[in-house]
Amino acid sequence: MSDTPFGDVDHPRPAPIHPDAVLPPPMSSQPADDDPTQALNEAWANILTKVSKPNRAWLSNTTPVTMHASTAMVAVPNDFARDRLESKMRHELEELLSDHFHKAIHLAITIDPDLELALGAPDHEDEEEEVPPAQFVPKVTVGTTEPSTQPVSTVDDDEGNRLNPKYTFDSFVIGASNRFAHAAAVAVAEAPGKSYNPLLIYGGSGLGKTHLLHAIGRYVMSYYDNVKVKYVSTEELTNDFINAIGTNRTREFRRSYRDVDVLLVDDIQFLESKIQTQEEFFHTFNTLHNAQKQIVMTSDRPPKLLEALEPRLRSRFEWGLLTDIQPPDLETRIAILRRKVAAEKITVEPDVLEFIASRIQTNIRELEGALIRVTAFASLNQQPVDISLAEVVLKDLIPEGRETPVTPERIIAETADYFDISTDDLLGTSRAQTLVTARQIAMYLCRELTDLSLPKIGAEFGGKDHTTVMHADRKIRALMGEQRQIFNQVSEITNRIKQY
Ligand SMILES: Nc1ncnc2c1ncn2[C@@H]1O[C@H](COP(=O)(O)OP(=O)(O)OP(=O)(O)O)[C@@H](O)[C@H]1O
C-alpha cells in the first residue's frame, strides 16, 4: 500500500493542475479545434450567455486562459472571486463546459492579479486595517453631571451629514406595523455599537425606513459628544467607490467610510450584482464591526432574498437584528396625517383625513403627497378642505381600474410634451425659466409617483445631484399651494401620465 497521496505507485494519478501552474502559451494562428486557447475563448463566450443570471455578473471579471486535456483554466482577479466560483458556480460552469465540448470538463481556477489591475480594482493593503474602538460619551447637560435622557442639542451639521431635520423619532408615528422597527431603532440610537449591530430594517417603499435611519443619526449626534455619523445611499456608496478607483483614491475612500462611529446605509438591495463594491463594503463592514462602531442598513427585502449578494456579506447582514416595516393600518395612516397637518399648522377636518387615509393604503409618501395636493387645491381656490373637494383632487391621483407602474421615462416624456420642449432640453442644464420649471415638476412627479430614491432620480435626469432633486421636490410642493398655474400643470401632467 502506497503512502503517497496519489494512491498506488504503479498507477499514479496525474498530478493535479495547480491553479498557478504555467500552461503552454496559446497558438493563436491555429484553428479553434487545434488551438486550446481559442477553443476555450469560444466556449467561455458561449457560456456567458447561458449562465444563470445571479452568476453572470461574477463572470464578467473572469478570463479564459487555456485548455489542457479535459481541464479548462480560467483566471479571476482575486481570492474573493475564486471563492465565489468555487463555492457557487463550479458545478454549473463544469456542466456548461462539458455540454459545449461534449466531454467531461474539469474547471481549474487561477488568480491573475494583473486582471485586477486591468479592472482598475483597488489595492487590498489596508482592506481591514484596525481602527480605534468607538467611544460613545454622552453629552452632559449644563448644570448637571448626569446625561439627559433626551437629546440635549440640535444637530446643526445637516449639510455635512445630510440628515433630514424632519425625520426624527418625535415625528415618527408608531403603529402595529412599525412598532418593532421603531423600538429597535431607538435601542440602537441609545446604545450604538452595543445593542444590535448591525441593525437592518427592511420593507416596501415609502414606509419609513429612511425616516428611522435619519432619526437614529440625529439622535446619536445630539446625545453623544464628538460622534461621526455618516448617512449614505447605496448608489452614492457605489459611485464614491467607482470614482475612487478611477482617480486612484481608494485609501481616501476607505478612510471616509471607516473613520465614522455610526454608518447608515440606505437601500442596500442596490449592492446586488456590484461585485467589487460588495467586496469593498465587506471589508468596511468588518473594520467598523470589529471596532464596535454601529452599522444600520435598510433594504426593500430581507437579506436571504438578496440573491445576487455575496453569501458572506449576506450572513453578516444577519448577524445583528433584522426587523421589517409593514404598510400601516388605517388608524396609523390617520395618525400620520394628523401629525403632518399639526406640523404644517394647517387645519383639515378629521373626516377628510380619514377619507384620504382610506384611499391611499400602502405608501406613506403617497399619503403625504395626497394631503399636499388636497390642501394646495383648497388654498388656491380659497375653498374649505372638505370631502367633496378631496374626492375631486384624488380622482386624478388614483384613477379607476388597473394601474400600470409609472416610470421616470414616462414622466419625463409627458412633461416634455406638455411644455412642448424636447426631452434633451428637459434633461439638460439650461436655466431658461420654462425649462427649469418643467424639470422641477418632472423631478417632483418622479418623487411622488415612483419609488425611486433621490440619487436614482438624479441619475434619470442626466446625472444631476440628489440635492438638486430634493430642492425641486420642496420647491414644487410649496409652489403648488401658492400658484394656481403650477398646481394645474402638475395635475394635468399627472392626469396624462396616469391615463397612459
Ligand atoms: N411612521 C411614520 N410616521 C410619520 N411619517 C412617516 C412614517 N413612516 C413614513 N413616514 C413618512 O413617509 C415618507 C416616506 O418615508 P421614507 O422615505 O422613510 O420611506 P422608505 O421606506 O425609506 O421608502 P423608500 O424605500 O422608497 O426609500 C417620509 O416623508 C416619512 O417621513
Automatic annotation (TrEMBL):
InterPro entries: AAA+_ATPase, Chromosome_initiator_DnaA, Chromosome_initiator_DnaA-like, Chromosome_initiator_DnaA_CS, DnaA_C, DnaA_dom, DnaA_N_sf, P-loop_NTPase. Residues 379-500 are annotated as: Domain IV, binds dsDNA. Residues 1-37, 141-161 are annotated as: Disordered. The keyword Transmembrane does not apply. SMART domains: AAA, Bac_DnaA_C. It is found in: Cytoplasm. One of its GO terms (cellular component) is cytoplasm. Keywords: ATP-binding, Cytoplasm, DNA replication, DNA-binding, Lipid-binding, Nucleotide-binding. GO terms for molecular function: ATP binding; DNA replication origin binding; lipid binding. Residues 195-323 form the AAA+ ATPase domain. One of its GO terms (biological process) is DNA replication initiation. ATP binds at G206, G208, K209, T210. Residues 162-378 are annotated as: Domain III, AAA+ region. The keyword Nucleotide-binding applies. Residues 1-130 are annotated as: Domain I, interacts with DnaA modulators. Residues 407-476 form the Chromosomal replication initiator DnaA C-terminal domain. CDD domains: AAA, Bac_DnaA_C. Residues 142-153 have a biased composition (Polar residues). Residues 14-28 have a biased composition (Pro residues). Belongs to the DnaA family. Plays an essential role in the initiation and regulation of chromosomal replication. ATP-DnaA binds to the origin of replication (oriC) to initiate formation of the DNA replication initiation complex once per cell cycle. Binds the DnaA box (a 9 base pair repeat at the origin) and separates the double-stranded (ds)DNA. Forms a right-handed helical filament on oriC DNA; dsDNA binds to the exterior of the filament while single-stranded (ss)DNA is stabiized in the filament's interior. NCBIfam families: DnaA, PRK14086.1. Oligomerizes as a right-handed, spiral filament on DNA at oriC. Domain I is involved in oligomerization and binding regulators, domain II is flexibile and of varying length in different bacteria, domain III forms the AAA+ region, while domain IV binds dsDNA. This is Chromosomal replication initiator protein DnaA. It comes from Cutibacterium porci. The lineage of its organism: Bacteria, Bacillati, Actinomycetota, Actinomycetes, Propionibacteriales.
